[in-house]
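Lab meeting prep.
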Amino acid sequence: MNTAELVEFLKANLAWVVMALVSGGMLLWPVIRGRASGPSLSPLEVTLMINREDAMVLDVREPAEWSKGHIPNARHIPLGQIEQRMGELDKFKTKPIIVSCATGSRSSSVCGTLRKAGFEKVFNLAGGLPAWEQAGQPLTTR
């Protein structure tokens, strides 16, 4: 197929070409985003890190979500307050921090923010609180 035929093919099938590019981008997005936010941990890995390395859990959900249940001993700083309240976390700069939310997307964003602020060991709870509950891990409302 020469260049002229290729151009004609692309013109005739523009909608299909665009759809293929968009779907390919959507397949690559989690991979690209995962690199930016850093590593994710399963609920089991989080439990091990809490027990073995005294990791701190940071819950970035909204207050109404937090009050329905959260990981025991977690700290609560809603996503919208992270920048203003970053100083509260300074003493954890060298300790493991596991960030959690409802699905893993807000926490992923916060992981990137913390890493840029110089936090060394930041991890995302893969699957968020639903994955934590599904793994049979405890929640508390206190």
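Slide two material, second protein:
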Amino acid sequence: MTQVFGVPVAVILGQLMLGLVNGAFYALLSLGLAVIFGLMGVVNFAHGAFYTLGAFAALLGLKWFGVNYWAALVLAPLTVGALGIVSERLLLRHVYKLEPLYGLLLTFGLALVVEGTLREGFGATGESYPVPRALQGAVNLGFMILPIYRAWVILASLVICGTTWFLIERTRLGATLRSATENAPLLQAFGVNVPLLMAATYGGGVALAALAGVLAAPVVLVTPLMGNSLVTVVFAVVVIGGMGSILGSVVSGLALGIIEGFTKVVYPEASNVIVFVIMAVVLIVRPAGLFGKE
């Protein structure tokens, strides 16, 4: 059997595919972060908490109201997005003219409140979310047995990321959002409700995080701290791709997931730090990120 670095090629290909699944989550989460930072200039440290809320919304919707997975894909992001809009109107709008550090600290505190509330209400132990019947089973790729649900996660993530990039970069709505960042007073003079636009932008960004939480619910245990394990990696992904660069976040998220998967096969001890090593190298060589503007 053909080997690379002493590891069978089939094992490497299987791990790369699993890495692509992780990369799909990285891409989707970093997309929301990039949207919020690129259009609002806010470092949203509560992103992992909103991801957790999305998973809990799906789980509790199923347990309490019988809301199935497909309905949760729509209802959970809308619910969490509405909560994000309320948070922006009550809290975030007061720190826009201050140093970015204040926004980071505020969202960090918001994340602690969300996590503490969930732990108090549901405990620290996790609960599993069932895989929907239509996505159960697996397909034989020759080199691995790939669960259909994980294939669905990759496809859904690519479609969502591509659609979001198109809306922001190639439509009139996206041009208006970017204008609000560059010259809000001028845009308001043309009759655009800039505060409402900013609130909707934040709500859309956290809705993307919640959508990632719904997609992750059948894959991982739904716990109050499930966002903690991802948020630091996702911030590293955003820094590597370029703060505020939507395309950079998506490409970097997918690529880093694959690199992480490859590292787990070749040198497992480095798999937990490889993303941060790459981030350090990128910051030294190109501080603005691979796709960011200087």
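Talking points for slide two:
The two ends are 47 Å apart (CA to CA).
The beta strands are 3-4, 7-8, 138-140, 145-147.
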